[in-house]
């Protein structure tokens, strides 16, 4: 049996954290978000359309900037960041770090909700458009992906490849908050029955923008 990869300080992987019932419920919310005032879309980075499709909550993200309105889509304001998701984020930090106080001061105000089909990838990048260094909380539902988590200096080794399955929690903060990371592959047909998704993968990343 292969041992899970060793992760750097500040990074935590909790397999199967969300129950199937929770996953189904969240996918129901995702369907409403994607059909909301700002539809799900593929952002453009340096003139190229991403293979991942994104809907945002709280703040609208486009490459290197957050705004309240989706100025690159239809100009409408994005949906509010839901209270229940913030509470889930605080619970996630406690679970991931085994520190009962880890979530006390965590107040995420945005979420990037990404949909990956089997062709979608995400290159190695840093989450550094925020003005806060609070942890990023990531939830996965649907098909398993190969997630590459690296170092804070560059896109090259050392890095670890982690299989993120439906219901998995991944947190990175502290010395790993600005680590390069990306999705190498989405494995079609691996979503468990009852998770709410028949095809593809939904990933929710909660962040604290530090904006007002």
| Whole-number tally of structural domains | 1
Provide the structure class. Answer: alpha+beta
Query: In CATH terms, what is the architecture?
Result: Sandwich
What would you call the quaternary organization? single chain
Give me the CATH superfamily. Answer: Alpha-ketoglutarate-dependent dioxygenase AlkB-like
Q: Biggest sheet: strands, sense, closure?
A: 6 strands, antiparallel
Low-pLDDT parts are none
Any chance you could write out the topology, listing elements then pairs?
Layout: E1 11-14, H1 20-34, E2 44-45, E3 48-49, E4 53-57, E5 60-62, E6 65-67, H2 83-97, E7 110-116, E8 122-125, E9 136-142, E10 145-149, E11 160-164, E12 169-172, E13 181-186, E14 201-207
Antiparallel strand pairs: 1-12, 2-3, 4-7, 5-6, 7-14, 8-13, 9-12, 9-14, 10-11, 10-13
InterPro entries: Alkb, AlkB-like, AlkB-like_sf, Oxoglu/Fe-dep_dioxygenase_dom
Binding site for Fe cation: 125, 127, 181
Pfam family, one: 2OG-FeII_Oxy_2
Task: Give an account of the 3D structure.
The chain has 212 residues and is an alpha+beta fold. It has one domain (11-207): Alpha-ketoglutarate-dependent dioxygenase AlkB-like (Jelly Rolls). 14% of the residues lie in helices and 30% in strands. It has helices spanning 20-34, 83-97; strands at 11-14, 44-45, 48-49, 53-57, 60-62, 65-67, 110-116, 122-125, 136-142, 145-149, 160-164, 169-172, 181-186, 201-207. The strands form four sheets. The chain has a six-stranded antiparallel β-sheet with strand order 1-12-9-14-7-4, covered by helices on one side. A four-stranded antiparallel β-sheet has the order 8-13-10-11, with no helix packed on it. The longest helix has 15 residues, at 20-34. It is globular and about 45 Å long. The model has no long low-confidence stretch (mean pLDDT 97). Keywords: Dioxygenase, Iron, Metal-binding, Oxidoreductase. GO terms for molecular function: broad specificity oxidative DNA demethylase activity; ferrous iron binding; oxidative RNA demethylase activity. Its cofactor is Fe(2+). This is Alpha-ketoglutarate-dependent dioxygenase AlkB.
């Amino acid at each position: 049996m292969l041992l899970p990869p060793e992760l750097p300080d500040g990074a935590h992987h909790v397999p199967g954290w969300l129950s199937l019932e929770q996953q189904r419920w969240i996918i129901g919310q995702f369907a409403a978000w994607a059909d909301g005032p700002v539809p799900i879309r593929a952002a453009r980075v340096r003139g190229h359309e991403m293979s991942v499709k994104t809907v945002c909550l709280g703040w609208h993200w486009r490459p290197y900037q957050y705004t309240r309105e989706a100025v690159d889509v239809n100009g409408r304001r994005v949906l509010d960041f839901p209270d229940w998701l913030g509470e889930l984020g605080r619970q996630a930090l406690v679970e991931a770090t085994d520190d009962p106080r880890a979530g006390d001061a965590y107040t995420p105000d945005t979420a990037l909700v990404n949909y990956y089909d089997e062709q979608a990838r995400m290159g190695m990048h840093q989450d550094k458009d925020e003005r806060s260094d609070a942890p990023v909380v990531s939830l996965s539902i649907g098909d398993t992906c190969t997630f590459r988590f690296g170092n804070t200096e560059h896109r090259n080794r050392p890095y670890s490849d982690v299989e993120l399955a439906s219901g998995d929690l991944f947190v990175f903060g502290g010395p790993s908050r600005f680590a390069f990371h990306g999705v190498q592959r989405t494995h079609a047909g691996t979503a468990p029955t009852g998770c709410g998704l028949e095809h593809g993968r939904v990933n929710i990343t909660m962040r604290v923008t530090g904006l007002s």
